Automatic annotation (TrEMBL):
CDD domains: KH-I_Vigilin_rpt1 (cd22405), KH-I_Vigilin_rpt10 (cd22413), KH-I_Vigilin_rpt11 (cd22414), KH-I_Vigilin_rpt12 (cd22415), KH-I_Vigilin_rpt13 (cd22416), KH-I_Vigilin_rpt14 (cd22417), KH-I_Vigilin_rpt15 (cd22418), KH-I_Vigilin_rpt2 (cd22406)
Domain K Homology: 152-220, 224-292, 297-365, 366-432, 437-505, 509-578, 583-651, 655-724, 729-798, 802-871, 875-990, 991-1057, 1069-1138, 1142-1211
Protein name: Vigilin
Acetylation found in the keyword field: yes
Organism listed in the record: Esox lucius (Northern pike)
GO molecular function, one term: mRNA binding
Length: 1295
């Protein structure tokens, strides 16, 4: 490390004053008064008159004056040039295409590329005139583009000497680019390694001529120039250049040639002269003359000068050598720095060598080098903070250089001999003083603890440094040293050493623990944006918790800190993980797809209730998914509770039984099959029962079957049969058949495939929608059974491949049934019977022949099915079901879903009548009927078919006993099916019941904006009618299906119980009490940002209200809540008040200059003091009567401690303030006079006279000086001024 002495303001002023004194002495010889007067400018020079607008009467122009001569005419930045392309040089000569062919496209492209504007016109001679407007560079670029793209190109070559090529190219090719732009040509210059001297030019004829001319001009100019190289011994170069290069400069000025002398650092003897031939010849003659003279007259002497003193002879940037050369005309030759020689050679006139030698020795001995012994650890204390200590010395002796070398126990001093003794004594005194009162120690601490000693951002080590006023050096990691060095005051060193060793000892007691936590839990522990791990870190602030990087896929979480805290944190996090594992239990519940909507409930009411009450997450499959699994996640016991409730809903809705079958666990995988194919085939065959196998590896043999009783029994038999086959000897074969044959192979209700299975004993599994291979059929069983089944299936498939065509007779009245709804019935037949094609005759042909085409067996089966349908159609009856029209909407259900279910289950058609507003009137559409209802159109099988029943106007009196047409629902189908459908319709008619609920609870049942009552109606699928408020009735009506009413009534009564309990609780919570507290204590009770009062409110669950500004009782605080909690909150506030009343307040005087230091950045310092001593500090506001007065409030003993601490801080900070102020005095010039009132020599110039001119109008005539405050003499721009005949000192007025 080194320190460099700096030139200070004082030393600079001292140096400058010496120079100014000399100048002042020289100037003082002449008379000052006359010179000052003559130096003043004249009025016309300072304020030249403006030119007159009107020309002189004789027509001559007014002579130019100072204003007009300085004003330059403004030039437009946009220029316009016209280029002419002769007919013979035009590229595009087809006149018919002018303005629209390639020529126009080229022009548009040029405009886009250059930004210039082009206008084309055709001359009489069929030449092309192009007007180009734009900025100069844009016009030149456009011109080049026009020439190259619209004009035919020619080429030519021009030969010039090879050495002139570089002048054509110019610096960085700029000259060549300029030439090409100027002449609109392309110029190709041969490469340097090409011996050719021919330059090729391509462009227009005009451009070629211009380019050739310019190139030949450049070459001709270079022919006139000459270059001369003269070899002169290096030792004579200083005589040719002269001191400070003055002589060579004079020669260049005199001859006009350029002379290049190599610098002293370059070991070359060649001097290069360039310029005109005559100039070069003259310069060479002058140089040779000097050289010959010096060679003849100059002699040398050699002297020995210490190597260390050579730099003083050379001087900064060689200035001393130049100075000796200028004074004596002698050149001093110094050996190079890398040479060990100490010989210095002086060369010059013999009579001048003695004087030069004296100068050399004077310069060599003008500086001295010495050293001061000082331990290296003391160096920075000697330098001081920001070099303050050294600055005191260097300000006095600015020419002395003080250098500190890191690791060496000495300080090097270098400077003028006369100053060295004083500087050395001062430095030795500083070193002695520091050694007497400073100390250091080294402690050994394991390097692994170093960064913990330093702390985050150096917090720990900086605190120790500031507290003990010491310097602590902790070695960097790359040194791998365990030595920590502490330097400073002996007591501070001892205390800092003790504290650091204690910290290190405490860290040795630290332990690091690796906690194994599965990576899937890491994000959950950290929380979104890290809020959860922050809570853990706040709970264990001494423990450092490190999670692995997610990409590392590691389960190790590292804890580091004090042993006990690490153990506590480890247990806490282990518990967190255990809770997550417990809450992460998952179970899948198979629920029949048709019951999923019941599990969800209206508006999600059922599923939401189960989730909230069991505290689980319940995920249902998407509507378009074939999955029946509902996944429940949470704690194991909660998942079981949710599972039981969901199964209970299913059981309530259908006749579901559950059976357990014992099958050896080793067979489970084979029974399930690949991707569950075997078990899925059993579930599908047995009416969609659910078969649940235990978890793999659990060793449990129990398999659960759930579903309708009959289907469960059937599934049990098949499962046991399959298990028996697997235990004996199972064989598997795969067959292929087109997917459209599968339904026919399976048969209606699985009849065909059941026959094959019963006859052979083999199980046949067809692919599901999710399987990749839709043609694959798997046969499983014993080898013989599989072979038989395979044979039968192959025969069936072969017969299906045998396509036949058959015809059957279907009466035309039944045609519409088959082709209705875009042929849905025919599509169903095709799907069921191997893709058989059924063709009905076109409408209007009156033909009853229907064609069937497909596999023979499929055609026969389809034919049989169509005959069954026709038989059903012939056997159909029509039946009426009378239900009041007001219930029709409820019976239909949302989007007609209930009616669709009845038509599907009972295979009947249902027609709803048109809705009427009043009896006897024609059909009218009810305005509020949803689309799903039968309103303007009739609903058939739950869907609109467009048939409208038109009622006739009543011409005769209506029988009161007769049913209204709008109440009659028509059913079509077989008699027994229609009767069953009528019963199903009547079961959907809603009924009403009444529940008594106290009137005052009605508004709570309705809820905010009806949300409460809506939720109940959605949950129980009923309509709840609350009486209007003006009726004051307690009766609430519930309307809905009979099986829903009981649940809705129970739910309503349960809600009434909850509301009653809430009313009682509200009454208990409304207990109020008041406490009288002096308003001056209110801010203390509230706390910073309401922290204290919020804590009381939260802890006691009460509401605490402070008085408003305008309240009469400013000392009353109101507490509302449960009586015992309000009393506890009152006691807590009273305890704070009692503590505040014990406090005292004292005023102390602290110098206002240290207030900012005590308060600290953003109040950190004052907050730390208030937290440490539990007191309140109040500093004076700006403009206070006593700016030094500070108030301290708190308990008496704490106030005294805080005051002592503040006074100590004041004493410490005041020392810094005084030191800074003393430094500031050195930075200001002495005295109160400003720099502007001093002349260059530091003398007082007296009061300023302002700006003074000679020969002003008010001095030569009778006019007075213009009045600065007068608006007439100094008018504002645009302000009207009254006309006056009085002449102005500024000349004639023009406004």
């Amino acid at each position: 490390m080194s320190s460099v002495a700096v030139l200070t303001q004082e030393s600079f002023n001292e140096h400058r004053s010496g120079l100014v004194a000399e100048q002042a002495g020289a100037a003082g010889a002449g008379p000052s008064g006359a010179g000052d007067e003559e130096a003043l400018p004249t009025y016309k020079d300072a304020f030249p008159p403006l030119p007159e607008k009107a020309s002189s009467p004789d027509g001559t122009q007014e002579p130019a004056n100072a204003w007009t001569s300085k004003i330059r005419p403004l030039k437009s930045s946009v220029i316009t040039q016209v280029f002419h392309v002769p007919l013979e040089e035009r590229k595009y000569k087809d006149i018919n295409q002018f303005g629209e062919g390639d020529q126009a496209k080229v022009c548009v492209d040029i405009m886009h590329k250059t930004g210039a504007h082009l206008e084309l016109s055709m001359a009489k001679d069929q030449g092309l005139s192009i007007m180009v407007s734009g900025k100069l560079d844009a016009v030149m670029k456009a011109r080049k583009e026009i020439v190259s793209r619209l004009q035919t190109q020619a080429s030519a070559t021009v030969a010039i000497p090879k050495e002139h090529h570089r002048f054509v190219i110019g610096k960085n090719g700029e000259k060549l680019q300029e030439l090409e732009l100027k002449t609109a040509t392309k110029i190709q210059i041969p490469r340097p390694d090409d011996p050719s001297n021919h330059i090729k030019i391509s462009g227009t004829k005009e451009g070629l001529e211009k380019a050739k001319h310019e190139i030949l001009l450049i070459s001709a100019e270079q022919d006139k120039r000459a270059v001369e190289r003269v070899n002169i011994d290096k030792v004579y170069h200083p005589f040719i250049t002269g001191a400070y290069n003055k002589l060579v400069g004079e020669m260049m000025h005199e001859t006009g040639a350029r002379i290049n002398v190599p610098p002293p650092s370059v070991n070359k003897t060649e001097i290069v002269i360039t310029g005109e031939k005559e100039q070069v010849a003259l310069a060479v003659a002058m140089i040779k003359k000097i050289y010959e003279e010096k060679q003849k007259n100059a002699t040398t002497i050699a002297v020995e000068v210490k190597k260390s003193q050579h730099k003083y002879v050379i001087g900064p940037k060689g200035n001393t050598l130049q100075e000796i050369l200028e004074k004596t005309g002698v050149s001093v030759e110094i050996p190079p720095p890398d040479s060990s020689s100490e010989t210095v050679i002086l060369r010059g006139e013999p009579d001048r060598l003695g004087q030069a030698l004296t100068e050399v020795y004077a310069k060599a001995n003008s500086y001295t080098v010495s050293s001061v012994v000082a331990p290296s650890w003391l160096h920075r204390f000697i330098i001081g903070k920001k070099g303050q200590n050294l600055a005191k010395i260097t300000q006095q002796m600015p020419k002395v250089h003080i250098e500190f070398t890191e690791g060496e126990d000495r300080i090097t001093l270098e400077g003028p001999t006369k100053d060295m003794q004083m500087v050395q004594s001062q430095m030795e005194a500083i070193v002695t003083d520091l050694i007497s009162r400073m100390d250091y120690t080294e402690i050994i601490v394991d390097p692994k603890f170093h960064r913990h000693l330093i702390g985050k951002g150096g917090a720990n080590i900086n605190r120790i440094k500031d507290m003990h006023k010491v310097s602590v050096r902790i070695p960097p990691d790359n040194e791998k040293s365990n030595l920590i060095r502490i330097e400073g005051d002996p007591q501070g060193v001892q205390e800092a050493s003790k504290e650091l060793l204690e910290l290190a000892s405490r860290m040795e007691n630290e332990r690091t623990k690796d906690l194994i936590i599965e990576q899937r839990f890491h994000r959950a522990i950290i929380g979104q944006k890290g809020e959860k791990i922050k809570d853990v870190r706040d709970k264990f602030p001494e423990v450092i918790i490190n999670f692995p990087d997610p990409s590392a896929k590691s389960d190790i979480v590292q804890l580091r800190g004090p042993r006990n805290e690490v153990e506590k944190c480890s247990k806490f996090m282990a518990k967190m993980v255990a809770d997550m594992v417990e809450n992460g239990f998952s179970v899948s519940v198979p629920i029949f797809k048709q019951f999923h909507k019941n599990i969800i409930g209206k508006g999600g009411a059922n599923i939401k209730k189960i989730r909230e009450e069991t505290n689980t997450r319940i995920d249902l499959p998407a509507e378009n998914s074939n999955s029946e699994m509902i996944v429940i996640t949470g704690k194991k016991e909660n998942c079981e509770a949710a599972r039981v409730r969901i199964l209970a809903i299913q059981k309530e809705l259908a006749n579901i039984t559950e059976m357990e079958v014992s099958i050896p666990s080793k067979l489970h995988n084979s029974l399930i099959g690949s991707k569950g194919r075997f078990v899925r085939s059993i579930m599908e065959e047995c009416g969609g029962v659910h078969i649940h196998f235990p978890t793999e590896g659990s060793g449990i043999d129990t398999v659960t079957i759930r579903g309708p009783a009959e289907e469960v029994e059937k599934a049990k038999k098949q499962l046991l049969s399959l298990a028996e086959e697997k235990q004996t000897k199972s064989h598997t074969v795969e067959l292929k058949a087109k997917p459209e044959y599968h339904k026919f192979l399976i048969g209606k209700g699985g009849g065909n495939i059941r026959k094959v299975r019963d006859s052979t004993g083999a199980r046949i599994i067809f692919p599901t929608v999710d399987d990749e291979d839709q043609e694959l059929i798997t046969v499983v069983g014993t080898e013989d059974a599989v072979r038989e089944a395979q044979k039968e299936l192959e025969e069936l498939i072969r017969s299906l491949d045998n396509v036949v065509e058959d015809v059957m007779t279907v009466e035309t009245k039944h045609h519409r049934y088959f082709v209705a709804r875009r042929g849905q019935v025919l599509r169903d037949i095709a799907d069921e019977y191997g893709g058989v094609m059924v063709s009905f005759p076109r409408t209007g042909t009156n033909s009853d022949k229907v064609t069937l085409k497909g596999a023979k067996d499929c055609v026969e089966a389809a034919k049989k099915r169509m005959l069954e349908i026709i038989e059903d159609l012939d056997a159909q009856v029509t039946m009426e079901c009378v239900i009041p029209q007001k219930f029709h909407r409820s019976i239909m259900g949302p989007k007609g879903s209930r009616i669709q279910a009845i038509t599907r289950d009972h295979n009947v058609q249902i027609k709803f009548p048109e809705r009427l507003d009043a009896p006897g009137k024609g059909p009218a559409i009810a305005p509020a009927v949803p689309l799903a209802e039968a309103a303007a159109s009739v609903q058939e099988n739950g869907e609109a078919n467009g048939e409208v029943l038109v009622t006739e106007e009543a011409a005769t009196p209506v029988d009161p006993a007769a049913h209204k047409k709008c109440d009659i629902i028509m059913l079509s189908g077989r008699k027994e099916r229609c009767e069953a459908a009528v019963e199903a319709l009547k079961a959907l008619v809603p009924v009403t019941t009444e529940v008594e609920v106290p009137f005052e609870l009605h508004r709570y049942i309705i809820g905010q904006k009806g949300s409460g009552i809506r939720k109940m109606m959605d949950e129980f699928e009923v309509n709840i009618q609350v009486p209007a408020p003006e009726l004051q009735s307690d009766i609430i009506s519930i309307t809905g299906l009979a099986n829903h009413l009981d649940r809705a009534k129970d739910g309503l009564l349960e809600r009434v119980k909850e509301l009653t309990a809430e009313q009682e609780d509200r009454s208990l919570r409304s207990f109020k009490l008041t406490i009288t507290v002096d308003p001056k204590y209110h801010p203390k009770i509230i706390g910073r940002k309401g922290a204290i009062i919020t804590n009381i409110r939260t802890e006691h669950d009460v509401n605490i209200q402070f008085p408003d500004k305008n309240d009469e009782n400013q000392d009353q605080i109101t507490i509302t809540g449960y009586e015992h909690k309000a009393t506890a909150a009152k006691d807590a506030i009273q305890a704070i008040v009692d503590e505040l009343e014990e406090m005292i307040s004292e005023d102390i005087t602290l110098d206002a200059r240290v207030h900012a230091r005590i308060i600290g950045a953003r109040g950190k310092g004052i907050r730390r003091i208030m937290d440490e001593f539990k007191v309140d500090l109040r500093f004076p506001v700006p403009g206070a009567a006593d700016p030094n007065q500070v108030s301290v409030t708190g308990r008496p003993e704490l106030v005294d401690e805080a005051i002592d601490h503040l006074l100590n801080l004041e004493e410490e900070y005041m020392a810094d303030v005084i030191e800074n102020e003393s430094k500031m005095t050195y930075m200001k010039p002495p005295g109160d006079r400003s720099a502007s009132s001093m002349d260059d020599g530091g003398r007082d110039r007296g009061p300023s006279k302002g700006f003074v001119v000679r020969e002003a109008p008010w001095q030569t005539g009778t006019e007075k000086a213009p009045d600065m405050s007068s608006s007439e003499d100094f008018p504002s721009f645009g302000a009207p001024v009254a006309a006056t005949a009085k002449a102005s000192p500024w000349g004639p007025k023009r406004f």
